[in-house]
Design goal:
By secondary structure, this protein is mostly beta strands. It folds into two domains: 103 residues, predicted glycosyltransferase like domains (Thrombin, subunit H, Beta Barrel); 128 residues, predicted glycosyltransferase like domains (Thrombin, subunit H), CATH 2.40.10.220. Helix 2 crosses helix 3. The longest helix has 13 residues. It starts with 13 loop residues before the first strand and ends in a 6-residue tail after the last helix. 28% of the residues are buried.
Length: 254
Amino acid sequence: MGTAGNWIERDVRYQFTNTYAATIVRTSDSGTESFDANLLDMSRGGLKLSVPVELAVHEVVQLQVASEVLQMDLAEPAQIRWIRKDPDSDGWHVGCQIQTAIDEEILEELAERGLLDRRNSARHSVNAEAMAQWELREDSVPVQLLNLSSEGFCLASDQPTNVGSRLKLTLSDENGQPSHEILARSKWQTEFENGYMIGCELSVEDIFDLVGYFADSPKHEPIATVTRPQFRPLLTGAAILAVVAALCISWIVL
């Protein structure tokens, strides 16, 4: 497990400002089938799509994008990295990784033409053990904090939760004493072979608390437990502001 200070920059994902079509070609022992998909966002290494059928994690499909508006003619093998149910339809959202990285110049051109929203948030790996207690539950369960952005965080858990439910984390210092209390709400959940990946959103105040915890504790692996305290300590300091500024830089309209 990595340390709390082991921050790893990931590709920033940019949302499309409109709906653009793609085609998924799927080959199996029973033959080849193709179906329509919609592009939702993209990064240098992959795309997020809305699809009408459930695909398998790690499955390799052929992704085709032929768009005059985007000035894109893409035909690439793509590996499905994650999948989750679309809460607004009967379809699914999938994240796929492509073999050939998309040039940064292409992303910049699409953004300049107003086809991509560049204000999405970069994610940073934190890889920290934690204990989580969800609302209406008395027990705490071990989880793994996977990444952090200026909008929230992602965690892995052996147990599912109800999307939309709240949790409260109390982060402990190197001596095991409570130091930070974090409120969050789950936004999505994806089932994997060994458990669940859960995305949570935070308020601006809680983002400061969570980023401040990692900024002030760069050399130890934090333990988090959930309690029901009545107050939240406030954080100050140049280190916190510097890390928050780094996380929120993608909010600036370039």
